Amino acid sequence: MSETALLVLGAPVVCRDDQPVSLPTKALALLGYLAVQRAPQRREHLLALLWPDSPDDAARKNGRNTLWAIRRALGAESIQTTEDLVSLSPATDVDLWRWEAAVLDDPAAVLSLYRGVLLEGVQLNDAPDFDLWLMLERERLAQSHMRALSAVISAYRQSGRWEDVIAWAGRAVQLDPLQEPLYRALMEAHARLGNRTEALRQYELLQTVLERELDVDPLPETTALLEQIRAGELPLATVAQAAAVAARAHPHVMPKAKTPFIGRAAALVQLDAALAAAQGPQVALISGEIGVGKSRLWSEWLERQAAGLTVLTLRCLQSTQSLPLAPLLDVLSGDFCLRSLFAAPSIVPQVWLAELARLLPEGRMLLPTLPPTTQLPADEERRRTFEALVQAFHALDAPIVLIVDDLHWIDAATCAWLDYATQRLTDRELLLIATYRAEEAPAYLPPIIASWSRRGILRRIPLSRLEPAEAEQLLEQLAVPSDLISQVIEQSGGNPLFLVEWSRTPDASIPPVLADLIAARLAHLPAEAQQVAQAAAVLNPDFALETLRRTSGRSEEEVLDGLDALLSANILAESSDSYTFVHPLIASVVESGMSQARRQFLHKRAATIREQTHAQRLEAIAGRLVTHYRIAGDIYHAAEYADLAADYAQSLAATTEALAFRRTALELVPTPRRQRALGLALLWFGDIVAARAAFEQALKAFAASELHHEVARTCLALAESYLPTADAAQAIAWAERASASLQHCSDPALEAQVLLLLGSSRRIAGQPLHLAEAHLKQAHALASRHGLTGLLARGEFEIGNMLAQRGDLQQALAVFAHAVELAQAARDVFQEVLSHNNLAFVAILAGELALAHTHIEQALSLAQQWSLRLPEQYLLSTRGELALAEHDWTTATDWFERGLQAAESQANHAQIANYHANLGLAARGAGDVERALELLEQAYAAAERLVAPFLQTQIELWLAETLLQNGMPTTARTYVEQAHARLEHSEQGYLKAWLHTVEQQLDHDHVLTKE
User: Fold this and answer.
1) How far apart are CA 652 and CA 638, in angstroms?
2) How far apart are CA 413 and CA 305, in angstroms?
3) Eight-class DSSP state of 409
4) Nearest-CA neighbor of 404 among 390, 414, 389?
5) Which of 233, 571, 709, 890 is most deeply packed, by most CB within 10 A?
6) Do residues 432 and 340 make contact, with C-beta atoms less than 8 angstroms apart?
7) Mean pLDDT value of segment 512-526
8) Nearest to 821 by CA among 861, 872, 849, 858
9) Cis peptide, bond prior to residue 377, ω within 30 of zero
10) What gap in Å lies between CA 406 and CA 289, rounded to an integer?
11) With 60 as the cut, is the pLDDT of residue 256 above it?
């Protein structure tokens, strides 16, 4: 049997019988992955990891070819396989395996085995998941290696083996030239051996690399060691005492007293009143400019309250505004809430605890017996999540005070939940106190505030700047010199934060903005505190001690000292298990004061640490990782995480955030796939023009690369974009182009989608229904054969439309109900909304108005939850038609006027004509026949310019009915004859039945009225 050696630490080397073997990059990647994982890996997992964009057949072929290449080069026994599993032969000599054993049993052997980072030089641009895995593994192994080296160096220092310290620390510095403790070890070792010149040179090398890479000076302890060496204070060739080396001096930071609280008596009374009224949910909205004291007001009020309140604080930050539910999950993941929720026995039912554990994985560790959760349709998933979060509040003792600091930076999902919670927790004593700046509020927040106001639960507490007398009183209590008080009041304008900050830097020149004040405070902190603050700013908004330590690169003792200084200076605030800045502006000032190199370095380190910490739930922190990698300059990883963040936001119904992440991903690393993904997001939002532009740009790139599969997929997206505007000809043209591209590849899902689009487009274009039906039947068969539930839902939807046009309303209702079920099973919210809508419309035609109400309300609710603007033009029409059926002409007009605006915004000319006709019907019902005829004729003129025979016939019949009501049978007959000619050879059973009714009315009208 031949002997195989695999070196993966450093540039990969593969040998067979001591002879190097050349292998393709994918083969090296596969061998490296199997070496790291050790355990047998599923074939499907490996194919998805290494060939994610290849169709299944192509991926399997690539996998077989790669295994064949490895076996041909290394022998059949090198790779062990079963039907489903692949593993590396345990007989292979793998340097990683020997290195891992050495780390545990023989640390001295680690240096010779570790040639460099894992699979150095290997990168798969077409396999992002593999590249992400490789990056994380490289960091993990590098840290493990550095820990082993540090342990060996420390042991040699303790035993006085200074030459070994020099050898090992010298090699370690080459691996990580920013590890300052290694330079101190080298300085001390050279000094102990009497080589003071070399010891001083090591300090100069450190000083140079820190200035070049991070723009910082060496730490005080390093400088102190330098002075010891210069003074000859280190004994030669004796064991050093760790305390002597670690000793350092830094300025003592005096604990800062709490600043005085001046004025605000009326605001405190209003908060007292709000709490007294909180037998059910109450909202106190504290508004005012930045620094006016909004947060200080609720903080002071809380301190004056008697014991017995349960207080939770949600901190909304600009940096987390795109992260769904981030502030809420942050507070619920704290020790107090976790114990309240998951401590057995819990008053929260197990089913809701299990749902909460999806969002708070720590909960399942506390209660491992929780039942598993099941997947639900998207709208149910959102409602279940919201309800679980509401149920969590039942585990908390009332009365509950929920603080939402900086409400204007709240994410859309948390905002929606707050509105939901204030409606659901009607039996709880709950006071919601929110601080707010109206000028920075997102579009989705004012409607929520307005709804609180309409429900009578909102109490507004506006805060203005301090009056001159109050400002003077504050400055006097802060011991500001009397000759400066007038000047400070004038320049601060009475803003409390400016006043307070000024009092803390009396020797500084007058700063023009608050950022200057914050920077001045930071400048007085010890060097280690400033570096800890820099790491904290990168991790903002919150961070645990261990994360902060690892990001800062300092020892635990150093970080604790820095934290003490920052807490004393009121820069940071401490909770039970994490830290945060007392104000987001401080973090902004800290980060903006860093050099670009330092900022990039810390963000890269923070990203790596967070990836390791949240390896099992990367999607939940993907938004933060986008920021880290973007600032770090790693735009490729930033773009990949933006894709992941968009997917995660969409899964939480946070469609606004999803669209923002799609744009970010495309901006960072433009690719045709990201261009198409942005187009799909824009289509959901109803921006059809921008969506088409994105699709067309993606199509050009795919066509240039002759990626036929992607060309077909993009053509179908373009075809879909023309259906909402009833431009059937364009939809057919793009679907046919997609079909032509599929001649070069096989994809049942795309083939079925082509058939569906052709069927629906031909129906809309007024082509014979049996032709459309033939396409739909083919699509249904293909989707059924391949288990394509989403396409089956669309197929049922189109069949329902065709049945309705043929006049089989009861069968159409049944088919639409099935379409709703299939859309829910496929988690296709868009299709579910359309199916609910059309079911409601047919129910109106069938006279089942209660059923229509049920489904149109569900459609409207889903569209609102998911921010679906595209179907709005249809939903509002159906809702108005329901009001028509109920003879509520005013309500119908209101719905139609809203819908007309939506249709005009989408440039849907067919729907615009339909709305004018419907407004005419509402006018007719209200008795304004003249206005009705005017609107119907306007609609008819518009419909004649379109390829919309169904709509034209409808309007002709509406006109005929209206003219008959107005005693004008001759003109009515003209429209009836036109409708008759159009329907004579058609399959439109519904319109034929309607036409027959109008014809009978004409025949029975024996009294001719002069026109």
Assistant:
1) 21
2) 31
3) G
4) 414
5) 571
6) no
7) 66
8) 858
9) no
10) 11
11) no
What is the per-residue pLDDT across 814-871, written as a single tens digit (0 to 9) for each?
999 999 999 999 888 889 999 999 999 999 999 999 999 999 999 999 988 887 888 8
Q: Is the dihedral of CA 691, 692, 695, 697 positive or negative?
A: negative
Given the structure tokens 């890479």, which residue do they identify? 213
802: number of Cβ within 10 Å: 20
What is the torsion angle, in degrees rounded to the nearest 10, for the CA atoms of residue 837, residue 842, residue 845 and residue 850? -70
Q: In what order do the strands lie in the sheet with 85-88?
A: 41-42, 85-88, 79-81
Torsion of CA 133, 135, 138, 139, to 10 degrees: -110
**146 and 114 Cβ atoms separated by less than 8 Å:** no
Rounded to whole angstroms, the Cα distance separating 270 from 278 reads: 12
Residues 900 and 926 sit within 8 Å (Cβ to Cβ): no
Residue of 998, 966, 1005 whose CA lies nearest to 983: 998
Question: Average pLDDT for residues 223-239, to the nearest whole number?
Answer: 75
What is the rounded CA–CA span in Å between residue 210 and residue 225?
A: 17
For residue 444, how far is the Cα from the chain centroid?
17
Q: Which long-range contacts does 79-83 make (Cβ < 8 Å, 24+ apart)?
A: 80/40, 82/40
Residue closest to 831 by CA, chosen among 868, 857, 806: 868
Say if residues 250 and 223 touch (Cβ distance below 8 Å). no
Instruction: List the one residue out of 809, 795, 863 whose CA is nearest residue 840.
Output: 809
pLDDT for residue 246 is more than 50: no
- CA-nearest of 1005, 907, 991 to 963 is 1005
- For tokens 């929520």, what's the residue? 448
Contact 875, 913 (CB under 8 A): no
Strand, helix or coil for residue 1011: coil
Nearest to 884 by CA among 836, 847, 834: 847
* Verdict on whether the full-model pTM lies above 0.85: no
Distance CA 559, CA 546 (A): 9
Q: In the structure encoding, which two tokens stand for residue 771, read together?
A: 């032709």
Q: pLDDT above 90 covers what percent of the chain?
A: 31
Taking residue 366's Cβ as centre, other Cβ atoms within 10 Å add up to 17
- For 283, the enclosing helix (H) or strand (E) is strand 282-287
Orientation angle between helical segments 545-552 and 556-568, nearest 10 degrees:
110
Predicted local confidence at residue 203, as pLDDT? 86
* SS3 state of residue 9: strand
DSSP states of 926-993? TT-HHHHHHHHHHHHHHHHTSS-HHHHHHHHHHHHHHHHHTT-HHHHHHHHHHHHHHHTT---HHHHH
Q: Which residues contact 974 (CB under 8 A, 6 or more apart)?
A: none
Q: Which positions ≥6 away from 4 have C-beta within 8 Å?
A: 14, 15, 16, 74, 75, 78, 89, 91, 92, 93
Give yes or no for a contact between 571 and 582, defined as CB atoms under 8 angstroms apart: yes
CA distances to 78, 812, 843, 934, 990 from 846, in Å? 70, 10, 5, 28, 11
639-642: long-range contacts, CB 8 A cutoff, minimum separation 24 = 639/664, 639/665, 639/668, 639/669, 639/674, 640/128, 640/132, 640/665, 642/668
pLDDT tens digits for range 931-942: 889 999 998 988
State the pLDDT at residue 242: 31
Helices within 554-633 (DSSP H only)? 556-568, 584-592, 596-613, 618-632
Residue 402 has pLDDT above 60, yes or no: yes
- Looking at residue 260, its amino acid is P
Task: Select from 503, 499, 500 the least CA-distant residue to 480.
Answer: 503
Question: How far from 203 is each of 145, 165, 500, CA to CA, in Å?
Answer: 24, 16, 41
Q: What angle do CA 946, 948, 952 make, to 5 degrees?
A: 95
Percent of the residues in the chain that have a pLDDT greater than 70, as a whole number: 92
Q: For residue 431, which phi and psi values (nearest 5 degrees)?
A: -115, 120
